[in-house]
Amino acid sequence: MSLAIVDSCVNCWACYDVCPSDAIYQSSPHFLIDTKKCTECEGDYAHPQCASICPIEQAILDASGMPVNPYGSLTGIPPELLEDAMQEIQSR
Ligand code: SF4
Ligand code: SF4
Questions:
Q1: Which ligand is closest in space to the CA of residue 53?
Q2: Cα radius of gyration rounded to whole Å, the chain
Q3: I need a labelling partner for 69 at 20 to 30 A (CA). Which of 27, 32, 45, 61 fits?
Q4: Mean pLDDT of all residues in 26-47
């Protein structure tokens, strides 16, 4: 099993150094995960380190295509409340 990085990756390098399996590599147009090397961090960490550090929500998917870092995972704001929260912040 392996995770996958998708097009919304902004090539920030954050995940590159935290992978315990050296599975992440630079490519064009964005970083990728070597499916043969990725262990999903099993045996090393409780959570996938790439998805834990990635600053772009939805940029890393699991083997079934679901985001490991879904909308709201960074901000703590549920997606359905994001628009109201942004309006409140911008009105300050
Ligand atoms: S899930 Fe873990 S092993 Fe797989 S690419 Fe991410 S950091 Fe590396
Ligand atoms: S941490 Fe996320 S945005 Fe940064 S290089 Fe890795 S996948 Fe791309």
A1: 2
A2: 15
A3: 27
A4: 98
